[in-house]
Write a structure and sequence with these properties.
174 residues; alpha/beta; 7 strands
Length: 174
């Protein structure tokens, strides 16, 4: 999987996500934004009928990758030039105020419990979506859509800058 990726690539590491409706919504969003979905070793998460129905065709368009144990997976992703970002409710960098890298793995935690603390600590950075405070957070599927759209906006901004200067990067000129 890693060898076939271009210079810009986005992946979602789903840590503990278990609700098939959220999984289906995440698959549809991942398909829309061209992200791969990484499933941890030992995760019972799999494509069910309910997830496929919610994904509405998105499941067939997404690369699903079953990861090796976390330490191995993190090492391989970093060697491939990925930065890992833990998505957290509080205490992270403001998603809308940071520059996102071209190769990014967003680690999305379980509904309610969040992600494994050791996995969050192993990430290169922590990102949060600022909100009004009326609710504690978005659910994992809604948060995934916000994170992926922000990364896509970074990518679109890069294309616009290249066009404005008369240069079009080969990776975006397809």
């Amino acid at each position: 999987w890693l060898h076939g990726l271009g210079p810009a690539a986005l992946a979602l590491w789903l840590d503990g996500v278990g609700n098939p409706h959220n999984f289906g919504a995440i698959l549809r969003t991942a398909a829309h934004f061209g992200a791969s979905v990484l499933l941890p070793a030992g995760s019972p998460l799999a494509l069910s009928g309910a997830a496929a129905r919610v994904a509405e065709g998105g499941a067939e368009a997404v690369t699903l990758v079953r990861l090796p144990p976390s330490v191995e997976a993190i090492d391989a992703l970093r060697r491939a030039g990925f930065q890992l970002a833990a998505t957290v409710v509080r205490g992270g960098e403001d998603l809308f105020a940071v520059e996102l890298p071209a190769r990014l793995v967003l680690v999305m935690g379980a509904e309610g419990e969040g992600m494994d603390a050791a996995l969050a600590a192993a990430c290169d950075r922590r990102l949060s979506i600022p909100g009004s405070g009326a609710v504690e957070s978005l659910n994992v599927a809604a948060a995934t859509a916000v994170f992926l759209s922000r990364w896509a906006a970074r990518k679109a901004s890069t294309r616009s800058s290249s066009r404005a200067s008369g240069l079009i990067s080969r990776s975006w000129a397809r």
